[in-house]
Amino acid sequence: MKNSKYVRALGAFYMRLTGSSVDCYKYLEPLLADSRKLRRQNRDGQFELIHVDEFIDSLLRDERVCDVILPRIQSRHVLEENNELEPKVSILEEDIEEGVESSDEEEPTEKRREKEHRSKHSPAKEKRRDREREKRNRDRDRRDRDRSDRRDRDRHRRSRSHDRERSKRHRSRSPYRK
């Protein structure tokens, strides 16, 4: 119970609602390394699985989370330029640097091939790729759904205005009009 994922998510949500921009990035970004799963209820009442890091990412990027409009925070690069935050170091940069260092050293080709195979097929990287793929699919589905909703809303507005115009014309021809 000490490190409950739901308590952590609730605390992160509270920090995002009440904290300053600097505090939000300072305290929430380390939680991006947490890959535990959460069950979240969507608008349709269905439960879906998300990861803690996805929830934290949505807190830092989205305007609305859990049907609550969040206060605006300054973007990270603005805070970095004002020296309020340290520049973010990407985990990928470390991997790239390690790749450059290892290529400088002379390795037998068989060992190099085996190492490349392990790095391409490591469970952690596959899990990360799967999560990124799922996130892209969800984002695409959300965009398509939003586009469809906008289209339906516009179509509904046009039909209502058309009905009003037709009703005005009909009333103007009415013989009972005074």
TrEMBL record:
Organism: Aphis gossypii (Cotton aphid)
Bias (Basic and acidic residues): 109-152
InterPro entries for this protein: PRP38 (IPR005037), PRP38_C (IPR024767)
GO biological process: mRNA splicing, via spliceosome
Major location category of this protein: nucleus
Compositional bias of kind Basic residues: 153-178
GO cellular component: spliceosomal complex
Compartments where found: Nucleus
Keywords for this protein: mRNA processing, mRNA splicing, Nucleus, Spliceosome
UniProt name for this protein: Pre-mRNA-splicing factor 38
Keyword rRNA processing applies: no
Role according to the record: Required for pre-mRNA splicing.
Domain Pre-mRNA-splicing factor 38 C-terminal: 87-173
Biased composition (Acidic residues): 92-108
Family, per entry: Belongs to the PRP38 family.
Recorded superkingdom: Eukaryota
Chain spans, region Disordered: 90-178
